[in-house]
Design brief:
Elements (H helix, E strand, L loop, with lengths): L7 H8 L21 H24 L4 H27 L4 H5 L3 H10 L5 H22 L5 H11 L5 H14 L3 H25 L19 H13 L5
Helix pairs in contact: 2-3, 2-5, 2-6, 3-7, 3-8, 5-9, 6-8, 6-9, 6-10
Length: 240
């Protein structure tokens, strides 16, 4: 497929096409979703770059040299993943910025919605959102063309920033126990916004470019993702 032979409108129409979601009985399985590779990776890249930017801002505001070192690793890990996504798109003959463009508005809106009130909420944002999105994209990978699955899994299942983020959050909560209740509430708020990005990947956008709401039979497909999020919150001593 020669993307550069198409007009910008043709490319955009292809990127924004609705996904047909197979069903099993009365439920949808994420492993059976068949997303188009370019919009799937384009959306993932845009979200990953936003996490890189957030991690960079949290690094700049870090309260200690120890936190700065840990957060420099977080930035590096997410930047490496973003580079891997970009290379997958380039291998398809698609410029990464072209693949991200249809999702620019929704990614920007998502970024604003998950902006924390302070350093601690921003840190939890990176932890919660990166964990949920990683679990979601890994669950969808089996529906990609077989030749592209390995590259995506290597990008998603490479180094993880989870240990660094957990250590920083646990330390912050230990030093300031009153943070627990506030961070627990913030974590619950983040789940709904992250799920909307998943609905966008599965259902495509509506006419206004927003995520199409989930259907009842799609909800069970996200149970494992929410369960994994709950375990991550339990690890921090926070209620999900």
């Amino acid at each position: 497929m020669k993307w550069f032979d198409r007009t910008p409108r043709d490319v955009t129409r292809q990127l924004l096409r609705q996904h047909r979601v197979p069903v099993v009985g009365d439920r949808v399985l994420l492993s059976d979703v068949r997303p188009a590779l370019v919009p799937f990776v384009g959306q993932a890249l845009g979200l990953e770059l936003d996490l890189v930017a957030k991690a960079g801002r949290v690094l700049q505001a870090a309260p200690s040299a120890e936190a700065q070192v840990a957060l420099s690793e977080v930035v590096r890990i997410h930047a490496t993943r973003a580079t891997a996504f970009a290379r997958i798109l380039e291998a398809e003959g698609v410029e990464p910025e072209d693949a991200m463009r249809p999702f620019a508005d929704t990614t920007r809106e998502f970024s604003n919605l998950i902006a924390g009130a302070d350093w601690y909420e921003e840190l939890l944002t990176i932890h919660v959102v990166s964990g949920m999105l990683e679990d979601f994209f890994v669950a969808i990978v089996p529906g990609l063309p077989e030749d592209d699955q390995d590259a995506m899994l290597r990008a998603l299942r490479g180094e993880s920033a989870h240990p660094q983020l957990v250590k920083l959050l646990q330390s912050a909560i230990h030093l300031t126990p009153r943070l627990s209740d506030r961070l627990a509430v913030w974590g619950r708020r983040l789940v709904g916004d992250a799920l909307l990005q998943m609905y966008l990947a599965v259902n495509g956008p509506d006419r206004s470019g927003r995520a199409v709401p989930s259907q009842p039979r799609l909800e069970p497909a996200f149970n494992d993702i929410v369960a994994s999020h709950t375990r991550r919150m339990d690890e921090l001593g926070l209620t999900a």
